[in-house]
Amino acid sequence: MNLEKVLAISGKPGLYVLKVQTRSGFVAESLLDGKKITVGLRSNVSLLSEISMYTNTAEKPLAEVMRNIAEKEDNGPAVSHKEDNDKLIAYFKEILPDYDQDRVYTSDIKKVLNWYNLLQSKGMVSKEAPKADAKSAAAEAEPEMVAEEVATEAAPPKKKAAAKKKAE
After folding, report:
1. Other beta carbons within 10 Å of 67
2. Of 112, 11, 131, 5, nearest to 52 (Cα)?
3. What is the pTM of this model?
Protein backbone atom coordinates (compact mmCIF):
# COMPACT_ATOMS: atom_id res chain seq x y z
CA MET A 1 0.00 0.00 0.00
CA ASN A 2 1.52 3.28 -1.09
CA LEU A 3 0.16 6.35 0.68
CA GLU A 4 3.08 8.58 -0.31
CA LYS A 5 1.11 10.86 -2.64
CA VAL A 6 -2.33 10.59 -1.02
CA LEU A 7 -3.45 13.80 0.69
CA ALA A 8 -6.11 14.89 3.12
CA ILE A 9 -6.93 18.57 2.64
CA SER A 10 -8.58 20.42 5.51
CA GLY A 11 -12.01 21.73 4.55
CA LYS A 12 -12.29 19.45 1.50
CA PRO A 13 -14.17 16.14 1.53
CA GLY A 14 -12.43 12.87 0.69
CA LEU A 15 -8.85 12.20 -0.27
CA TYR A 16 -6.69 13.56 -3.07
CA VAL A 17 -3.71 12.34 -5.07
CA LEU A 18 -0.82 14.74 -5.59
CA LYS A 19 -0.36 15.29 -9.32
CA VAL A 20 1.91 18.28 -9.99
CA GLN A 21 3.75 20.80 -7.89
CA THR A 22 3.41 24.41 -9.01
CA ARG A 23 5.09 27.63 -8.00
CA SER A 24 2.19 28.68 -5.80
CA GLY A 25 1.18 25.25 -4.46
CA PHE A 26 0.19 22.05 -6.22
CA VAL A 27 -2.51 20.32 -8.25
CA ALA A 28 -4.38 17.41 -6.65
CA GLU A 29 -6.96 15.02 -8.08
CA SER A 30 -9.94 13.95 -5.99
CA LEU A 31 -10.40 10.23 -5.40
CA LEU A 32 -14.14 10.81 -4.99
CA ASP A 33 -14.98 12.36 -8.35
CA GLY A 34 -11.69 12.69 -10.26
CA LYS A 35 -11.80 16.50 -10.38
CA LYS A 36 -8.52 18.35 -10.21
CA ILE A 37 -8.07 21.29 -7.86
CA THR A 38 -5.26 23.69 -7.15
CA VAL A 39 -4.16 23.98 -3.56
CA GLY A 40 -2.17 26.94 -2.24
CA LEU A 41 0.82 26.72 0.05
CA ARG A 42 -1.14 28.10 2.97
CA SER A 43 -3.72 25.28 2.97
CA ASN A 44 -3.65 22.73 5.75
CA VAL A 45 -2.62 19.52 3.96
CA SER A 46 -1.61 16.16 5.42
CA LEU A 47 0.14 13.31 3.65
CA LEU A 48 -1.44 10.03 4.74
CA SER A 49 2.04 8.50 4.92
CA GLU A 50 2.90 11.00 7.69
CA ILE A 51 -0.18 10.33 9.86
CA SER A 52 0.05 8.02 12.88
CA MET A 53 -2.41 6.65 15.43
CA TYR A 54 -1.69 6.85 19.15
CA THR A 55 -1.22 3.56 20.99
CA ASN A 56 -0.36 2.90 24.62
CA THR A 57 3.25 2.10 23.72
CA ALA A 58 4.13 4.18 20.62
CA GLU A 59 2.60 5.76 17.54
CA LYS A 60 1.50 3.41 14.77
CA PRO A 61 1.71 4.64 11.14
CA LEU A 62 -1.62 4.91 9.33
CA ALA A 63 -0.36 2.53 6.62
CA GLU A 64 0.05 -0.22 9.25
CA VAL A 65 -3.43 0.43 10.65
CA MET A 66 -4.91 0.21 7.15
CA ARG A 67 -2.90 -2.97 6.48
CA ASN A 68 -4.43 -4.45 9.67
CA ILE A 69 -7.91 -3.58 8.37
CA ALA A 70 -7.07 -5.13 4.98
CA GLU A 71 -5.89 -8.33 6.70
CA LYS A 72 -9.05 -8.53 8.79
CA GLU A 73 -11.32 -7.87 5.81
CA ASP A 74 -9.22 -9.86 3.29
CA ASN A 75 -8.74 -6.69 1.18
CA GLY A 76 -12.49 -6.06 1.22
CA PRO A 77 -14.42 -3.05 2.50
CA ALA A 78 -14.44 -2.28 6.21
CA VAL A 79 -17.38 -1.39 8.43
CA SER A 80 -19.07 1.82 7.34
CA HIS A 81 -17.98 4.97 9.16
CA LYS A 82 -21.68 5.75 9.67
CA GLU A 83 -22.22 2.85 12.07
CA ASP A 84 -23.04 3.26 15.77
CA ASN A 85 -20.12 4.65 17.83
CA ASP A 86 -19.99 1.59 20.13
CA LYS A 87 -19.77 -0.74 17.14
CA LEU A 88 -16.98 1.38 15.59
CA ILE A 89 -14.97 1.36 18.83
CA ALA A 90 -15.34 -2.43 19.19
CA TYR A 91 -14.27 -2.90 15.55
CA PHE A 92 -11.25 -0.63 15.99
CA LYS A 93 -10.19 -2.55 19.12
CA GLU A 94 -10.01 -5.65 16.92
CA ILE A 95 -7.85 -3.80 14.40
CA LEU A 96 -5.57 -2.01 16.86
CA PRO A 97 -6.08 -3.51 20.34
CA ASP A 98 -3.64 -1.22 22.16
CA TYR A 99 -4.83 2.11 20.74
CA ASP A 100 -4.89 4.96 23.25
CA GLN A 101 -8.56 5.44 24.07
CA ASP A 102 -7.90 8.84 25.66
CA ARG A 103 -6.25 10.38 22.60
CA VAL A 104 -7.97 8.56 19.71
CA TYR A 105 -11.51 9.89 19.39
CA THR A 106 -14.49 8.31 17.68
CA SER A 107 -14.21 10.97 14.97
CA ASP A 108 -10.65 9.76 14.26
CA ILE A 109 -11.87 6.17 13.94
CA LYS A 110 -14.64 7.28 11.57
CA LYS A 111 -12.12 9.20 9.46
CA VAL A 112 -9.73 6.22 9.22
CA LEU A 113 -12.53 3.83 8.23
CA ASN A 114 -13.90 6.31 5.69
CA TRP A 115 -10.41 6.77 4.19
CA TYR A 116 -9.83 3.01 4.13
CA ASN A 117 -13.11 2.34 2.33
CA LEU A 118 -12.37 5.08 -0.21
CA LEU A 119 -8.86 3.75 -0.88
CA GLN A 120 -10.17 0.16 -1.01
CA SER A 121 -12.78 1.09 -3.62
CA LYS A 122 -9.95 2.50 -5.77
CA GLY A 123 -7.79 -0.61 -5.30
CA MET A 124 -5.12 1.26 -3.35
CA VAL A 125 -4.99 -0.93 -0.20
CA SER A 126 -3.17 -4.20 0.30
CA LYS A 127 -2.61 -6.56 3.20
CA GLU A 128 0.92 -7.26 1.99
CA ALA A 129 3.85 -5.54 3.69
CA PRO A 130 5.69 -3.05 1.48
CA LYS A 131 8.98 -4.21 -0.01
CA ALA A 132 11.96 -1.95 0.68
CA ASP A 133 14.28 -1.32 -2.25
CA ALA A 134 16.30 1.54 -3.71
CA LYS A 135 13.47 2.75 -5.97
CA SER A 136 10.92 3.00 -3.15
CA ALA A 137 13.47 4.76 -0.92
CA ALA A 138 14.01 7.37 -3.62
CA ALA A 139 10.25 7.71 -4.14
CA GLU A 140 9.76 8.21 -0.40
CA ALA A 141 12.26 11.09 -0.27
CA GLU A 142 10.47 13.12 -2.96
CA PRO A 143 7.01 13.42 -1.27
CA GLU A 144 8.63 14.42 2.01
CA MET A 145 10.21 17.36 0.21
CA VAL A 146 6.80 18.29 -1.21
CA ALA A 147 5.19 18.10 2.23
CA GLU A 148 7.94 20.25 3.71
CA GLU A 149 7.47 22.88 1.02
CA VAL A 150 3.70 22.82 1.49
CA ALA A 151 4.05 23.31 5.23
CA THR A 152 6.41 26.27 4.92
CA GLU A 153 6.78 29.01 2.37
CA ALA A 154 9.31 28.20 -0.33
CA ALA A 155 12.10 30.64 -1.17
CA PRO A 156 11.45 32.78 -4.24
CA PRO A 157 12.69 31.15 -7.46
CA LYS A 158 15.06 34.08 -8.22
CA LYS A 159 17.17 33.32 -5.14
CA LYS A 160 17.48 29.66 -6.12
CA ALA A 161 18.55 30.57 -9.66
CA ALA A 162 21.16 33.01 -8.32
CA ALA A 163 22.58 30.32 -6.04
CA LYS A 164 22.93 27.95 -9.02
CA LYS A 165 24.78 30.57 -11.06
CA LYS A 166 27.24 31.21 -8.22
CA ALA A 167 27.87 27.48 -7.88
CA GLU A 168 28.80 27.19 -11.56
Report:
1. 19
2. 112
3. 0.73
